[in-house]
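User: Sequence recovery, please. Input:
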């Protein structure tokens, strides 16, 4: 099973890269994917694509390429996590893996195997690329990035079967609720960014189509450009979130925020055509209503989780800090170097995005958390955020014995039988 953990994800990743490269080359050249020189070219192109899927920065004709697509990395991480999870379950006693994790330490070997295998293969892949070639990469950097990505993904997949999912349950209730709020805030902001990106695609569909027509008029180049856009969609979503939060996004000298723009050259990529190039209208400031609503939603979910103000403040601060870390990390991974010309660098400022997220979640979240449910309200609960509390039913008033006796006698008379009083009279 450890061999499966070590070899299956890298092999699948490379196979998919080769197939995609072969299909695009075949469409562009008119040859079949298995023909020559299409196969050799696809095998060669698959190596740098494998490194790109692991978020390893490259040098393309001597120019840095550090803004890497997040979609392949996310798919690869899910694959690694799934394989690691299956390996832990197969190696575990009873089929669920928990006993083996506790007695034989399966978690550490599985995670270490995944990390070491990807690190070694990353070194070999980078070594196959030379400065004389079109693409080059640092073997040391490839080993570190590949190993880190694989190790984190394997840990995420194996932690559940090994029983580590119960560790958050040992945290204080306010910390658990705060972490749930952080996930809620991050998911809500990313969903809003995806909605904004979709609205931009609909509104500027003509500009996107014009880029396709100018840059990739043939079927092969058009398919390659479409795959490139799909691979960079998560990056574009994070950029949209950066715009909604206020720090904005920049490509070289061009930048855009809800409050203003700076003009500059844009790369010939359809997604880049969505970057605003005209001064924002006066109503663009309404975009800040989205993060304001997200912060208010977090506060509303956290309000019923505690009866005192101090606990609500701690939970809301935890939610804001966790969301800031998530969005700041996403912004850092979504940008990077793009050549050495007018398009360099692509920046979604990680620190300003994190600080903006912290402010937008913390301030309205605190206000709503403290006011949505009155402090000391017995309806508040410490169990789950956003759920109505389950208060104990109020005791019913004690029944009068005389009234019960009269009711029983009436019921018995209605049925034609003696009631309690008659039975007592007939007795000895």
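Assistant: Recovered sequence (428 residues):
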């Amino acid at each position: 099973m450890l061999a499966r953990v070590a070899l299956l994800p890298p092999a699948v990743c490379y196979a998919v890269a080769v197939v995609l490269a072969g299909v695009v080359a075949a469409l562009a050249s008119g040859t079949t994917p298995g023909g020559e020189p299409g196969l050799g070219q696809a095998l060669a192109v698959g190596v740098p694509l494998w490194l790109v899927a692991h978020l390893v920065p490259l040098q393309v004709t001597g120019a840095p390429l550090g803004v890497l697509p997040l979609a392949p990395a996310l798919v690869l991480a899910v694959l690694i996590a799934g394989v690691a999870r299956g390996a832990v379950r197969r190696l575990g006693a009873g089929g669920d893996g928990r006993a083996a994790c506790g007695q034989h330490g399966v978690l550490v070997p599985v995670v270490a195997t995944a990390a070491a295998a990807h690190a070694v293969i990353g070194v070999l892949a980078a070594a196959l690329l030379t400065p004389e070639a079109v693409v080059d990469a640092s073997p040391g950097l490839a080993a570190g990035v590949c190993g880190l990505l694989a190790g984190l993904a394997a840990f995420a997949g194996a932690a559940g079967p090994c029983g580590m999912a119960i560790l958050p349950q040992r945290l204080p209730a306010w910390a658990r609720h705060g972490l749930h709020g952080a996930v809620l805030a991050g998911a809500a902001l990313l969903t809003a960014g995806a909605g904004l990106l979709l609205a931009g695609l609909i509104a500027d569909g003509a500009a996107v189509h014009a880029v396709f027509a100018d840059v990739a008029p043939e079927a092969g180049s058009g398919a390659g450009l479409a795959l490139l856009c799909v691979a960079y969609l998560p990056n574009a979503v994070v950029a949209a979130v950066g715009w909604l939060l206020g720090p904005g996004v920049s490509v070289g000298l061009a930048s855009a925020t809800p409050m203003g723009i700076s003009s500059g050259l844009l790369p010939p990529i359809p997604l880049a055509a969505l970057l605003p190039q005209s001064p924002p209208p006066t109503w663009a400031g309404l975009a800040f209503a989205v993060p304001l609503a997200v912060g208010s939603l977090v506060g509303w979910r956290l309000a019923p989780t505690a009866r005192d103000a101090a606990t609500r403040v701690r939970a809301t601060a935890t939610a804001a800090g966790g969301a800031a870390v998530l969005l700041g990390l996403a912004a850092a991974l979504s940008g990077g170097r793009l050549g050495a010309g007018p398009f360099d660098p692509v920046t979604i400022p990680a620190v300003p995005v994190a600080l903006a997220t912290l402010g937008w979640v913390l301030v309205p979240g605190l206000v709503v958390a403290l006011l949505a449910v009155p402090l000391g309200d017995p309806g508040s609960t410490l169990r789950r955020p956003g759920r109505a509390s389950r208060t104990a039913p109020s005791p019913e008033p004690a029944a009068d014995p005389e009234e019960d006796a009269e009711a029983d006698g009436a019921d018995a008379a209605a049925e034609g039988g003696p009631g309690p009083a008659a039975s007592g009279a007939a007795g000895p």
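Residues 5 and 83 are 6 Å apart (CA to CA).
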